[in-house]
Design brief:
By secondary structure, the protein is of the alpha/beta class. It folds into two domains: 256 residues, 3-Layer(aba) Sandwich (Rossmann fold); 91 residues, formyl-coa transferase, domain 3, CATH 3.30.1540. 37% of the residues lie in helices and 13% in strands. It has 18 helices and eleven strands. Strands 3-2-1-4-5-6 form a six-stranded parallel beta sheet. A three-stranded antiparallel beta sheet has the order 7-8-9, covered by helices on one side. Helix 1 links the parallel strand 1 and strand 2. It is elongated.
């Protein structure tokens, strides 16, 4: 990996959009990251002096700084503004007049309490799209309850099915509820932008974390509705989908093999030196293999255990059998395919030097996104926004800064 250029060849397909990002932590800011990755001007409003708590989050903090912040705040502009005060709310309204999207993830009712509800903002900018991410959504009996990503994962059905059947419900190793809700919020906003082109009117995008999780739960609801079947925790397998599991090797590693399709299973049988398995009535069809899943998995495990991972992988590749090594960060960084597709890049950072992070996805052939800079210092763009965009005079700026409504204007580092 080489350090990415300070400025990508293009700013991206959304470079004509201005997004005001309010809120903090993960769900709203991840949605803002998606917009910024594809070129939108994302102006992040942060509490003066303290900023988003994400600036302190993360397991490892070399130099006392978060390694999460450079990723989730990449490509954004940081502005210190106190939206809890009347003068700060007036500045938000001034920004709304010059913007396409306002993104927030406060508890429902907060923006209305501040005089920043959709009706008030749409009166200023009828084309405004207001993206609202919350635990339970903007309506319904739970709307104003405190709701985090983990709660949405539980209510949406994900937590119950994650983990081994011998253990209590587990969690993913990442904040998947937050990022799912943020991704659906971004999709909703882009859909609403398309509608603006036809109608000239903006709207509210209401993304609830529990609904985002529920949306990806496949046939969980219909299976219960029509067959009284409740999905349970099944560890590394899906019931009746076989073979698709992690299998041991002689050197203590595991290889994931996914050969549940009939034609693929036939190729696996050839790789195992047992082509007759593909026509054996016990294993010849998807349904038949599902009925003897434990027996089949044991048979494949006994075979895979006779080889090292380095021997097993190429053999499966030769026979066209989908397989995957179980990667951690070190394996991801060294993988030749990851390198060839630049799925991980290095970005220049003023404190950490070249900082590795995942690249923008998906890849667009004509108007790709890109990483222009890592998460900025708090208030790095105060001057650019307050003086340049809003054109506040020096006396007004000094007064607002002295009263803690905004951060002191200063220029972002080149």
């Amino acid at each position: 990996m080489t350090a990415a250029p300070a400025t990508p060849p293009t700013r991206g397909p959304l470079d004509d959009l201005r997004v005001i990002e309010m809120g903090q932590l993960l769900a709203g800011p991840f949605c803002g990251q998606l917009f910024a990755d594809f070129g939108a001007e994302v102006i992040k409003l942060e509490a003066p002096g303290t900023g988003d708590p994400m600036r302190q989050w993360g397991r490892e903090k070399p130099h006392g700084q978060s390694l999460w912040w450079p990723v989730i705040a990449r490509n954004k502009k940081s502005v210190e503004l106190n939206a809890r005060e009347k003068d700060g709310q007036d500045l938000v309204k001034a920004l709304v007049a010059e913007s396409d999207i306002l993104l927030e993830n406060f508890r429902p009712g907060t923006m209305e309490k501040w005089g920043l509800g959709y009706d008030e903002l749409a009166a200023i900018n009828p084309k405004l799209i207001m993206v609202r991410v919350s635990g339970y959504g903007q309506t319904g009996p739970y709307a104003r309850k405190a709701g985090y990503g983990s709660i949405g994962e539980a209510m949406g059905g994900l937590r119950y099915v994650v983990g081994d059947p011998s253990t209590p419900p587990s969690r993913m190793g990442i904040s998947i509820g937050d990022t799912l809700a943020a991704t659906f919020a971004c999709i909703g906003a882009l859909t609403a932008l398309h509608a603006v082109q036809r109608t000239g009117r903006g709207q509210v995008v209401d993304s609830a974390i529990y609904e985002a999780v529920l949306t990806v739960m496949e046939s969980l609801i219909t299976e219960y509705d029509k067959a009284d079947y409740i999905r349970e925790r099944t560890g590394p397998i899906l019931p009746n989908v076989a073979p698709s599991n992690v299998y041991p090797t002689s050197d203590g590693l595991y290889v994931l093999i996914a050969a549940n399709q009939d034609t693929v299973f036939a190729r696996l049988a050839d790789a195992m030196g047992r082509p007759e398995l593909a026509t054996d009535p016990r294993y010849a069809t998807h349904s038949a293999r599902g009925a003897v899943q434990p027996e089949l998995d044991a048979m494949i495990a006994a075979w895979s255990r006779t080889m090292t991972a380095a021997e097993l992988g190429p053999l499966l590749d030769t026979h066209g059998v989908p397989r995957g090594d179980i990667y951690r960060a070190p394996e991801i960084l060294e993988d030749v395919h990851v390198k060839a597709r630049e799925a991980v890049v290095r970005i220049a950072h003023p404190t950490f030097g070249d900082l590795a992070m995942q690249n923008v996805a998906p890849k667009l052939s004509g108007t790709p996104g890109g990483i222009r800079h890592p998460g900025p210092e708090l208030g790095a763009h105060n001057a650019e926004v307050f003086e340049g965009l809003l054109k506040l005079d020096p006396a007004r700026l000094a007064d607002l800064a002295a009263r803690g409504i905004i951060g002191a204007p200063r220029r972002a580092a080149a």
